[in-house]
Design goal:
The protein is an alpha+beta fold. The protein has helices spanning 6-30, 71-80, 102-107, 166-185, 189-207; strands spanning 38-44, 50-57, 61-65, 84-91, 94-101, 111-118, 124-131, 150-157. The protein has five helices and eight strands. Helix 1 packs antiparallel against helix 5 (189-207).
Length: 220
C-alpha cells in the first residue's frame, strides 16, 4: 500500500497553519476603528462658528441637533438683513461649508435637510442644504409661525462625487502612504492573501513524487 510521504504530511500541516493565520489576519482587518462623528456648526452673519450638533455616518446618517433658545430670533434677524445662514461640517482639520438664504430657511419653518455627498470610499465630499421654500418674501417673515424646528440628514453615495478640496486630497494621499507603509512592514500578509493558490500547487507537486522504493526482499 502507498501512504503519503512524511514530506506531504508536513506540507499539509503547513497549509493548515497558513489557513489559520489568514483567518486571523481577516479578523484583525475586520475590526475597523470607530469613525469619529462629524461636528455640525453654524454661523450667524460672521466667521464665528458655533456647535449645533453631531452627525454619525454609517449605512444611513444619524444626526443630533441642539439649536439653542435664541435660534429662531437669530435666524429671523439674518433673514431681515438679507443675509445667508451658514453651516459647516467638520472632522479634524477638514471642513465643508454650505449656506442658504436665511429668509427662505425661516419661511421653511426652520426645517432643513442636510444631504451629505460621499464618494465610492465613503469619504465626505460635499454637503447640500435642502429647504421646503426656495424663494423669499420678506413681507411674510413677521407673520410666519414656527411650530417646531426640525433638521434631518441623508446620504448621497456616488461612484464619482464632487471634486474634493485640496485639504481632502492631501489627507487622502497621506492615508494611502501610511497604508502602503503598513503593508511593507508585514510582508507575510502576501501569503495570508494568496495561500489558496500557492499551497495546493506545493502539495500536488509533493504528492506526485514517486514513493521511496522498499528494500528488496528475498526472492522465492
Amino acid at each position: 500500500q502507498n501512504f503519503p510521504t512524511m514530506r506531504a504530511w508536513l506540507a499539509l500541516l503547513a497549509w493548515g497553519c497558513l489557513v489559520a493565520s489568514a483567518l486571523c489576519d481577516e479578523d484583525v482587518e475586520a475590526e475597523a476603528a470607530p469613525v469619529a462623528p462629524l461636528i455640525l456648526e453654524h454661523s450667524f452673519g460672521n466667521d464665528v462658528f458655533e456647535k449645533r450638533g453631531e452627525i454619525v455616518l454609517g449605512v444611513s446618517a444619524s444626526i443630533s441637533v441642539k439649536n439653542g433658545p435664541n435660534f429662531k430670533d437669530r435666524v429671523l434677524e439674518l433673514a431681515k438683513a438679507g443675509q445667508d445662514y451658514r453651516l459647516r461640517v467638520r472632522r479634524g482639520d477638514v471642513a465643508i461649508l454650505a449656506s442658504v438664504n436665511a429668509c427662505a430657511f425661516y419661511l421653511s419653518g426652520l426645517r432643513d435637510k442636510l444631504q451629505l455627498h460621499l464618494d465610492a470610499e465613503g469619504q465626505l465630499q460635499g454637503m447640500t442644504i435642502l429647504l421646503q421654500e426656495t424663494v423669499c418674501d420678506p413681507s411674510q417673515l413677521d407673520s410666519k409661525h414656527i411650530s417646531q424646528e426640525k433638521t434631518s440628514a441623508v446620504i448621497s453615495r456616488s461612484s464619482k462625487g464632487p471634486e474634493p478640496y485640496m485639504d481632502d486630497l492631501v489627507q487622502e494621499m497621506e492615508r494611502k502612504q501610511k497604508k502602503g507603509g503598513a503593508a511593507d512592514e508585514q510582508p507575510q500578509s502576501f501569503f495570508g492573501k494568496y495561500w489558496m493558490y500557492i499551497l495546493p500547487l506545493v502539495v500536488m507537486m509533493l504528492l506526485k513524487q514517486p514513493p521511496q522504493e522498499a528494500a528488496a526482499g528475498g526472492g522465492g
